[in-house]
Amino acid sequence: MIAHNEAKLIRETLESTRFADEWIVVDTESDDDTAATARQFGATVLTRPNVNNLNINKNIAIDSCTGDWVLYLDADERISEASKQELLDVMEHGDCDAYFFPRLNFILGRATRYGGGYPDWQLRLFKRGKFRFPEKHIHERVAGEGKIGKLMNPLIHETYPETILLLRKLQFNAHFEAQYAWQNGLRPSVGLAWQWLFWKPFSRTVERFLFKLGFLNGFAGVTSCAFDAMNFIVRYLYLVEWARHPDRAPK
To answer: Degrees (nearest 5) of the Cα angle 6, 7, 9?
Structure first.
């Protein structure tokens, strides 16, 4: 895993993987006890710059593994007891080179099973040397060659356990998406303003909250849809800022 200021969550995540032979944690310039907590658990801790493209450091973590199988986790994810038994079984008896987990996301402590958020399939268990993260975009997933299967038991994801983390992730993701758009030639315009300030926030909220039954998630569903909509608005505001102040724009 890679981690940045995850001292509150990383021990529980590591504890859920007691079955592993080794733990590799890439600490990206944390200023809390993330690295110390990981070392106390017995993990090998590598220190790396906290670059925007997280997949670069994810691949460094993967390349540092020595076992036949690699399980990649984010610091806010953990393996349930049922998932543990299932993955141990497929590593021993399965006929695939990699496996998807259905990921169950929690927002402010509540599972979000509706609104299109579950199953949030994530390829996280794979044979070493066959799969890696592409390094072009923040949301690219593990890719490679080989036979891929699916597990039945979910990976637990504490997406936003606290409001402050929700706000931080909104800012980080929106900034990265805006940077990616800017570097690919996208600039503020009437058409883009209509898309990102009005149409996408509105249409995605209607789709997720109503048609995909996100309202059944309760307050977590409202929160999820609201911050998904805000992501597009904040992205556009970054583009406007950079267009007005080119010296602040990403290179």
So the answer is: 70
In angstroms, the Cα distances linking 243 to 166, 187, 205, 227 are 27, 7, 28, 24
Cis peptide before 246 (omega within 30 of 0): no
Helices (H), 64-215: 81-93, 163-183, 190-193, 200-205
The partner residues of 156 in beta bridges, in order of sequence, read 78, 104
**Structural contact between residues 155 and 87, judged by C-beta atoms closer than 8 angstroms:** no
Q: What is the pLDDT of residues 190-235, one digit of tens each?
A: 999 999 999 999 999 999 999 999 999 999 999 999 999 999 999 9
Q: What is the pLDDT of residue 138?
A: 65
Amino acid at 193: A
Positions in the chain short of pLDDT 70? 138-139
Tell me the CA distances in angstroms from 28 to 25, 130, 161, 171, one per residue in order. 9, 25, 21, 18
> Are 249 and 181 within 8 A, CB to CB?
no
Of 104, 93, 109, 92, give the one whose Cα is nearest residue 153.
Answer: 104
What is the per-residue pLDDT for 168?
Answer: 86
pLDDT of residue 120: 93
In terms of Cβ atoms closer than 10 Å to its own Cβ (0-12, 13-18, 19+), residue 41 is middle
DSSP 216: G
Which run of H or E residues covers position 139? none
Instruction: Please name the residues in contact with 235: beta carbons below 8 A apart, sequence gap of 6 or more.
Output: 174, 177, 178, 181, 196
pTM for the model: 0.86
